[in-house]
Design brief:
single chain; 148 residues; mainly beta; glutathione-dependent formaldehyde- activating enzyme (gfa); seven-stranded mixed sheet; three-stranded antiparallel sheet; 10 strands; globular
Length: 148
């Protein structure tokens, strides 16, 4: 199987050949900071499965053991890599719908309310209509979810 993906602006693109490994969510503080989110979702693979088809990721050594790859233009988080492992951010794939996390790690830093997200109330139909009207005016500059 072949899967493609890349950053938000399209400057960095990749293709992965073969089966993916374990998909996980990491709650550690470093992943929270790297993604600017509640956790970091990754899927593992062998580095030789990945071909960088456009541009090159920049690397930040976030610790003495790990580097994080990202787009130097738009900042999209792309990889988590070190000796003996290579992970790609699940959301960077063009179609991440079937890359379902099977394990959580870094639980010592898990935000205590994360498990409650699914039970949050939604906005009223009126408020949702206003948001849809606003979104209808948006002209996206994001790279499409396919190779170009």
């Amino acid at each position: 199987m072949s899967r493609s993906g890349g950053c938000q602006c399209g400057a960095v693109r990749f293709r992965v050949e073969g089966d993916l490994g374990r998909a996980s969510i990491c709650h550690c503080r470093m992943c929270q900071k790297a993604f600017g989110a509640f956790y970091g979702p990754y899927v593992s693979m062998k580095p030789e499965q990945v071909t960088w088809t456009r541009g090159a990721r920049k690397l930040f050594a976030s610790s003495n053991l790990v580097s994080r790859g990202f787009c130097g233009d738009c900042g999209t988080q792309l990889t988590f890599e070190g000796a003996g492992f290579f992970d790609i951010a699940i959301g960077a794939f063009d179609d991440p719908t079937d890359i379902r996390p099977t394990i959580q790690i870094g639980l010592e830093a898990k935000l205590r309310w994360v498990d409650e997200l699914g039970s949050l109330r939604t906005q009223s139909p009126e408020a949702q209509a206003k948001i849809r009207a606003y979104q209808a005016q948006v002209v996206s500059h994001q790279h499409p979810d396919h190779d170009t």
